[in-house]
Amino acid sequence: MSLKYKASNPDGIYFITLTVVEWADVFTRRDYCELLCDSLGYCQQKKDLTLYAWCIMTNHVHLICSAPKLPDVMRDLKKYTSRFLVEAIKTNPKESRKNWLLWLFKSAAEKSSSHGEHQFWQLGGHYVELNMNGLLAQRLEYLHQNPVKAGFVEEPEQWYYSSARDYAGEKGRLEVVLLE
């Protein structure tokens, strides 16, 4: 992974995208979104993760965040959520795509020596330091407009798994520090 996609400034605010392997639509089920939200909340409480904005889409997650050891926090988040999301898929009696998803995650893991039986997230992550106000505003707008452009909602704040509610003056699912 090139340096431009790594968090090299410990005091920086970063736009990060985490993507499910093969862009599989996993976050179509509320249970899986809640598991990810709970994990993000844990990182906020125990690992000094500050969320400025976030959005869970069906197959990827956008975050605008900072943390003293951001690469370590993201590594731990991905490792934990990977294990628990795969287990949630395995044990969900309503999961009609169970065999296909598990096959997909297993196939991805077989291509990588750094994974166990299943790989949920794509390797690495896309880190962009938001060190200019214009870039920060552009990424914030992009993140909140993602569900609108995908055709899921008419207005950003209608998407439950996003900080757009907080920016619209409503209470969102996770605690965020609003950017001005």
From TrEMBL:
Gene3D superfamilies the record matches: Transposase IS200-like (3.30.70.1290)
InterPro entries linked: RAYT_transposase, Transposase_17, Transposase_17_sf
SMART domains (UniProt xref): Y1_Tnp
Domain Transposase IS200-like: 9-146
Xref: PANTHER family: REP-ASSOCIATED TYROSINE TRANSPOSASE (PTHR36966:SF1)
NCBIfam families on file: REP_Tyr_transpos
Name of protein: Transposase
Protein species of origin: Pontibacter saemangeumensis
